[in-house]
Every structure is written in structure tokens, then in C-alpha cells.
Write a structure and sequence with these properties.
The chain is of the alpha/beta class and 438 residues long. The protein has helices at 22-29, 38-54, 71-79, 89-97, 114-123, 133-146, 185-194, 216-236, 262-280, 293-296, 330-334, 423-427, and strands at 8-9, 15-17, 20-21, 33-37, 59-64, 83-86, 105-107, 127-130, 150-157, 160-163, 166-169, 179-180, 199-205, 242-244, 286-289, 300-312, 316-321, 340-342, 352-357, 366-373, 381-385, 406-410, 413-418. It has 2 domains: 8-37 and 297-420, Beta Barrel (Lyase, Ornithine Decarboxylase, Chain A, domain 1); 38-294, Alanine racemase (TIM Barrel). The protein is 30% helix and 26% strand. Strands 4, 16, 17, 18, 19, 20, 21, 22 and 23 form a 9-stranded mixed sheet that branches. An 8-stranded parallel beta barrel has the order 5-6-7-8-9-13-14-15, surrounded by 5 helices. It has a 3-stranded antiparallel sheet with strand order 1-2-3. The termini are far apart. Bound molecules: pyridoxal-5'-phosphate and lysine. Residues 66, 210, 330, 390 line the site of lysine (LYS). Pfam families: Orn_Arg_deC_N, Orn_DAP_Arg_deC. The modification N6-(pyridoxal phosphate)lysine is found at residue 66. It catalyses: meso-2,6-diaminopimelate + H(+) = L-lysine + CO2.
Length: 438
């Protein structure tokens, strides 16, 4: 069993996270509960920042908040000196409520509404990553009315699509995001933005995918972008001051995953951008990145209580927990794999193969297939590791199951940062049927 960050087995044989016994977390907050190892989030943030500082490169590391968004998380991100990437007015609103400096927020999305854009501009957002022509039109109108010049990046699809370990070159037609780099779209967008006082064009953005295990895709994307920068320099005299290479750095969910150290991804990017800038004889642009999963993924653990079981003779034994696809949809959605352990009996020998089922009314609601655990009993606590990214943020109320609370653990202290949803919370938006008029 692989323990991430500060997770360890304590003298009681229990899983401890951030110096806090998970048994204490369970008795105080119940299950299911998401627990974050705050020290590990800080460590990852510093690793990314340090990698740029080591090379003396101007950079922004923006946390892609879709991975896990909450007021406390945004305050932690600010404490660590990162920027923030949001993709909706909801994420932006949360950030502003958390007191996050608006000038360090970047706004993404392939269909931002006029209302969302207005909120962003009124807040004094640091940068809007423009995705399409419709958005150029919307921002131009809002900026003119407000007499503003909006800092923007243009998102391009560089024709590099990452498939976890693998990456293949594709055309853009299969992506809903960004301007095509090859068919003249991006040149048209640059011309429009440069010719409009409502915009301050900082540079370009790309994001090649998620859970990527090597640096080659990022290098290839940078090379493709710089090939175009050479043309833009000649035709428009436009040289980006910012190149944003997105997020997507992989993490270790199971022993099958072999991600690089955060610094290693960054070093390869820096090398590529330096080489290309030298070849073109241009100043090194600022390099921005947007890690989401790699900042919070392995820092999160979900604790569940084991309940019922079912044996299918000669096939498998199902063990059910008090959560499932409502708090972690990734196994059902992506066949994502995780590792797990019995948090209250970490030293017991794992000699039983079982599969972990959720409690939703859905056969596909399985969290883990065929894993080794000790003999379990109802009431045991199951810890599923690496659930920090796209767990809470994709949680839902299927079957009207309430969303679990989130606890931050650090230096021996546990702090509740998101409360458990109540049934009343779920009913808050419901209205009764109108009385029939007879
Ligand atoms: C534009 C953009 N930036 C950053 C991210 C963060 O990706 P990850 O969580 O894999 O680092 C995503 C999600 O894939 C994204 O779409
Ligand atoms: N939600 C996905 C990642 C999506 C990345 C956002 N563009 C996951 O859980 O892996």
C-alpha cells in the first residue's frame, strides 16, 4: 500500500493524515468524509513555483480550481502565492467570496455568457482566456461600454491530444475548445483583437489534456505554437508576452501510474520555450501553467463506513460503503482506478479479494474492483486514496444522497471546511405543487 504525503500508520494501527487519526475524524464528522492533507497541497504548490524560480523564469502557476473548489481551498491557494483558473461565474464568485485577488484570476470556458463576462470585468479579473469568435464579440461590446481594455489570452488547439501515457497528433475538428492553429482561425482572432482597443492581448494558451505522464506532449505543443509565433511576428508584428501551456500533469492513483516530479514537467516546458525563443530571437515570454489534479489529487482521501456485503459464489464478494458515485463519479465515468485500505486496521494482512460497491441505485456504481483487503466487518472504515481532484467538485445528489463534508488536516489539527449537506439543504430549492384549481 502506498501512502502519500503525511499519511502514515499510527501506533493504534490507524491511518493518520496531517497528524490526525482518521478514527477521530470519523467520530467527529461521520462518513463519508473527504480529508485533505494540507501540507501535501502546500508542498506541490511550492514544487511548481520553485521549478520556475530555479530557472529564473517569469511565470504564473494558476490552480485549476475545477479540480476542487471551495472558499478554504482558494484561501490556501492564495497563501501559497498561486494564481487561480476559474471556468464559470460560480467558481469566480467563490473565489471573490474567499477574498482571492481578482487580478490573479484567469477565466476560462468555451461558452462564457455575457453575464459571466460582465461579472469578471466588473471584478477586475487578471485575464480572460478567449475561446471563440462569439466571445471576442461579447467582450468587445462590454469593454467598449465600460471603457476598459481587457487583458486576454487566445486559446488555441495545437493539434496535440494527450491520452494519458500516450499522445497523438490530431486535427482540431474533434475539440470544442479554442481557435484552430492551422486553418487561419487563430490569425483572424489575433487581427480582430489587436484591432480593438477593448483588448490587451497578452499571448496564447493551450491545454493538451489531463493525467499526462511525460513532457513530450507539452514540448510538441510549445514547438507548434512557436512555429506560428514566427509567422505572427512577421505578419502582424505580434509576439506574445505570455505563453500558457495549461495543466494536465499526472498523479499516482495506483501502482500502474508513474508520473514525473512536478519540476520535471516544468523543466521540459521551460527548455522548449527557451530554445524556441532563442531560435526566433524574441524575448522569453512568461510561462503560465494550470495544474489542477496534481495540486490536490493525491492529497485527498475519502473515508467510508462499510455496511452490507454480497457473495456471488466463485465470482466475487461485493462490499458496500455509505457513498459511491455520488461522491466519486470517476470510476463510473472513466473506469478510473484507485487504491484503498482499512483505515481502522492498517496493519492487518490483506488476504481477501473484494470489490467495493457504492450505495446508489445503479449497477455501475462500483468504486473499486477486485482489491485485496483484510477480512472486513460492518462498521470498518474504508479509506480510498487520491480522491482530492474531481471528487467533491463532481459530487452530485443522485438518489438524493447528501454530499459529504470536507476536512482539512494539518499539523495534528482537523478543520471542517465544507459542512455535510443536510436533507433540508437538498430541499432548499424545491417548491410544492400548486393546489389544483377546481
Ligand atoms: C484549460 C484547462 N486548464 C487546466 C486544466 C487542469 O487539468 P488537470 O487537473 O489535469 O491539471 C484543465 C482540465 O483538464 C483544463 O481544461
Ligand atoms: N474531470 C476529469 C478531468 C477533466 C479535466 C477538465 N478539463 C477527471 O476527473 O479526471
Amino acid at each position: 500500500m502506498y501512502l502519500h504525503g503525511t499519511s502514515r500508520i499510527n501506533q493504534a494501527g490507524h491511518l493518520e493524515i496531517g497528524g490526525v487519526d482518521t478514527a477521530d475524524i470519523v467520530s467527529q464528522y461521520g462518513t463519508p468524509v473527504y480529508v485533505y492533507d494540507v501540507e501535501l497541497i502546500r508542498k506541490r504548490a511550492r514544487q511548481f513555483k520553485q521549478a520556475f524560480q530555479n530557472e529564473n523564469v517569469k511565470a504564473q502557476v494558476a490552480y485549476a480550481s475545477k479540480a476542487f473548489s471551495s472558499v478554504a481551498m482558494f484561501q490556501l491557494v492564495e497563501e501559497e502565492g498561486l494564481s487561480l483558473d476559474v471556468v464559470s461565474a460560480g467558481e469566480l464568485y467563490t473565489a471573490l467570496k474567499a477574498g482571492f485577488p481578482p487580478e490573479k484570476i484567469h477565466f476560462h470556458g468555451n461558452n462564457k455568457s455575457e453575464e459571466e463576462l460582465k461579472l469578471a470585468l466588473e471584478a477586475g479579473i487578471g485575464c480572460i482566456v478567449i475561446d471563440n469568435f462569439y466571445e471576442i464579440h461579447l467582450i468587445s461590446g462590454i469593454a467598449k461600454e465600460a471603457n476598459q481594455s481587457v487583458p486576454v489570452l487566445l486559446r488555441v488547439t495545437p493539434g496535440v491530444e494527450a491520452h494519458t501515457h500516450d499522445y497523438i497528433t490530431t486535427g482540431q475538428e474533434d475539440s470544442k475548445f479554442g481557435f484552430d492553429l492551422q486553418n487561419g482561425q487563430i490569425e483572424r482572432a489575433i487581427e480582430m483583437v489587436l484591432g480593438d482597443k477593448g483588448f490587451h492581448l497578452l499571448g496564447v494558451h493551450c491545454h493538451i489534456g489531463s493525467q499526462i505522464f511525460d513532457g513530450a506532449g507539452f514540448v510538441l505543443a510549445a514547438e507548434k505554437i512557436f512555429k506560428k509565433i514566427k509567422e505572427w511576428k512577421e505578419s502582424f508584428g505580434f509576439v506574445p508576452t505570455v505563453v500558457n501551456l495549461g495543466g494536465g500533469f499526472g498523479i499516482r492513483y495506483t501502482s500502474e501510474d508513474e508520473p514525473l516530479h512536478p519540476a520535471s514537467y516544468v523543466e521540459q516546458m521551460i527548455q522548449a520555450v527557451k530554445t524556441q525563443s532563442q531560435l526566433l530571437g524574441i524575448n522569453l515570454p512568461e510561462i503560465w501553467i494550470e495544474p489542477g489534479r496534481s495540486l490536490v489529487g493525491d492529497a485527498g482521501t475519502t473515508l467510508y463506513t462499510i455496511g452490507s456485503r454480497k457473495e456471488v459464489p466463485n465470482i466475487r464478494e461485493y462490499i458496500a460503503v455509505d457513498g459511491g458515485m455520488s461522491d466519486n463519479i470517476r470510476p463510473a465515468l472513466y473506469q478510473a482506478k484507485y487504491e484503498a485500505a482499512l483505515a481502522n486496521r492498517m496493519n492487518d494482512a490483506c488476504n481477501k479479494e473484494v470489490s467495493i460497491a457504492g450505495k446508489c441505485c445503479e449497477s455501475g456504481d462500483m468504486l473499486l474492483w477486485d482489491i485485496e483487503l483484510p477480512e472486513t466487518a460492518a462498521g470498518d472504515i474504508l479509506a480510498v486514496f487520491c480522491t482530492g481532484a474531481y471528487g467533491y467538485s463532481m459530487a452530485n445528489n443522485y438518489n438524493r444522497i447528501a454530499r459529504p463534508p470536507v476536512v482539512f488536516a494539518e499539523n495534528g489539527e482537523a478543520q471542517l471546511v465544507i459542512k455535510r449537506e443536510t436533507y433540508e439543504d437538498m430541499l432548499k430549492l424545491d417548491l410544492p405543487l400548486k393546489a389544483k384549481v377546481r
